[in-house]
Every structure is written in C-alpha cells, then in structure tokens.
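Checklist before submission:
- one chain only
- standard amino acids only
- sequence pasted in full

Submission:
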Amino acid sequence: MEWGMKNRLSRLIQKDGKALFLPVDHGYFQGPTHGLEKPEETIKPIIQYADALMLTRGVLRNCIDPAIEKPIIMRVSGAVTVVGEDLANESVVTSIQEILRLNAMAVSMSVFAGTKYENKSLSNLAKLVDECEDYGVPVMAVTAVGKELEKREARYLALVARVSAELGARVVKTYYCKENFEKVVDGCPVPVVMAGGPKTESQKEVFDFVYDGLQKGAIGVNLGRNIWQTENPVASIRAIRAIIHENYTPQEALDLFNQVKAGKA
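Returned file contents:
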C-alpha cells in the first residue's frame, strides 16, 4: 500500500483500529432532511466527537468551515431522488480532480446488489476505485441489497460486502443484522463499519447494536440519523463514541447518555 493511501486511512481509522464516521449526506437524495435543514448548525455541536465527516461537495463548499480539522469522506454518487423511479440508478457525480481539490481523505458511493441496476452500480464502483487508487484515495462502498427488509440478513449483506471488497473498496459500510453478523465481517477482507438505517425506537437499541457489531468484528459505525435526529445529539454521539473507543457496555453508554443529557458529564 502506498504512503498516501496509508496516510489517508490512518486519518480515518484511529490508532485503536476503530472509527466513528458522521454522515450528513442525506440531502443528496432526500432534499432538506429533518435535522439537516441547515447542515452547519447540525454538525457544529457534535463534530468534535466524530472521527470523520461524510458529505457531498456542495455542502462541504457552502456549509463547512475550511479550517475544519476532521477528515472528509466525500459522497460522490447520486443524481437520483426519492421521487424518482429507483434510488439504485445512481451515477458517479464527482471527478477525481474535484475530490483532490477539496482535499477529501476518502470517497463513498452506494452499491446496490439485487436490483436491476446492480451491474451499473458495481461497474461504477470498479471505475471509481481505478481512478482513486492512482491518487491514493480510499473508496468506501456503502452497500445496499434492494428494498426488501428481509434481504438485510447475513447471507445478502455478506454477499455485497465481499463483492465490494473484491472490486477494490478499502472500507465497506453495511447494515447490521442481529443474526450471524460475524459472517458478514469475517467474509469481508477490508474493514467494516455499520450503518444506522432508520431512526430507532430508543437510545439503548442503538447502543446495543453498536456494541454487538463491534464484538463481532466491525471497526465502528457510520451513523447519521441515529445521532442528529435524536433528542440530544451530543449525548448520543458521546455515548456511541465511548462504546467504540473506550469499550463501554450498552448500559454504561446509556448511563453516560443520561449524565450528558442532564448536564452532569
């Protein structure tokens, strides 16, 4: 691995081998998402607790202070919306020149297996890897397996995670599944981070799946809505960070959440 690639990955994955990525890229297909109407206001109180920030070039240019010290993961796929025919019909919308110009430490793009656009998204991933490897920029594959929730089980998640790694992704983002999640991680030869998906019913539920996923081999999370759409985003991200980097149990994380929420920590 070249020095530039190693250096960028070391900025993203911390010395303990773990990572907490904060995505605020939802507007690229959802528009002004609840909680992200003004991205700069959303991230201001919580960015210090994240290891990296994931967003589009437009939000980066217009909403983020150029003096930010946190590394940027740039979302480079898109050109679809929630009112269109199929979210899987994405294209790569950002050039390698733009990625370098905006000093991104990594890029991310969605990969949709089990859809009619499977070949297109996997081919896009391979082409993006080819371009980014020339400049030492790691690619994170944001994996999905179609609309059916029943496909969010280990055999399908393991399939798309492994295929993404085989095509050259340096990091894979995947959904957590309660049953056999270790098979997803064990079958993927690159680091795995967990997605949050829809907002959960309770903070404890988030802490439970983050903790369990780490025990089963994930290096961390890429959580957005389960942080900035919660009742107390600062308390939420601090508790999640404690699970990832300080080995807190879910109950210890919940205790910390309540202390921060009460202004006692």
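Reviewer check: The first strand starts at residue 19 and ends at 23.
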